[in-house]
Design brief:
Blueprint (H helix, E strand, L loop, with lengths): L12 H4 L4 E5 L5 E4 L1 H7 L3 H4 L12 H13 L3 E9 L5 E10 L8 E7 H48 L6 H22 L7 E4 L1 H15 L4 E6 L7 E4 H18 L4 E15 L2 E13 L27 H11 L3 E7 L2 E9 L16
Amino acid sequence: MSAFENIDPVAYPGLETLATAVIVLDHSRIVRYLNPAAENLFAVSRKNIVGHSLARVFEDTSQIAAALDYASTNNCSYTQHELTLQVIGSGKLEMSCIVTPGEGVLADDFLIEFNALNQQLKIAREERLLDQSELNRELIRSLAHEIKNPLGALRGAAQLLDRELDRADLHEYTNVIIQEADRLQLLMDRLLTPHRLPRIVRFNIHEVLERVRNLLMAEHWDGLSIRRDYDTSLPLLTGDREQMIQAVLNIARNAAQAMNGKGEIGFRTRAVRRITIARKMHRLAISVQIIDNGPGVPDDIRDRIFFPLVSGRENGSGLGLTLAQTFISQHHGTIELDSEPGRTCFTLLLPIDETDPLRPHETQQDT
């Protein structure tokens, strides 16, 4: 009988408190134990897995079986790099694992440590996006200031020229100059908007989503449906409510426009615990998912989708998602993208500031 036939987790606090996911198999390769980190990583319950093979967790266990064979035959630890695991009922995970034959109390057992490469890649990508976002903001701000001054002079000169023209048909050309100058002026104002000081209040994320929902339904009342899946127990957020509305609206409006106003958008909120966002560990965060069933983000721009002036639409300005990322970053959050034809999901992760001095009931109502 394995030493973990009737394991008491409290007796092994070292394994219980590890941040690394650990699974223990007996000599028959039956799961006898998994720690809380493994439960979280694979989204499984200990009571449903213990006493069963790994085939109850993963669709294909051939790579793990090969690692177990090597470790058993050579009586040594074996590291399997670039391990792809398909969790039953969930997605794929890019992993590395270390298989160690047991000793002492673990005799005849195998201890498997899993490290999610997804998380390492995610953190590295977030760091690159944060650095790139900061560079983009400074570049845009400098460029906008440089353009605004000559743009005003150009518009003024066109107005003076318009007054001196005798032929009515020539006014059309000066009007084009004035109209395009106004359009560029509006664009510059939008580029500079994120740099105003935030107006900090306490607000409910669902009020934000409902405001966006009302705006979208007014724009696309005849073909768009919005499905809501809210966790109404979520705590209040601290931040700039109007910026948050604009960030969510930019993402959701992009989704509606990608579907030509005909399709379904889903709003989903959940609590996330013990998560690293923007290089910092948070005990609690709010996850806001904006999901559409449109054509998806084109592959050629997926890695650049948050860069300024990058758009998948012919007449798009390429600023909506850039501004959304700027506003979310100012709230110490991040945006993740998962897209394929028929399903695109933007996930906003927003940390809860538990030390904020504002009281929970101090909210700002709709205006």
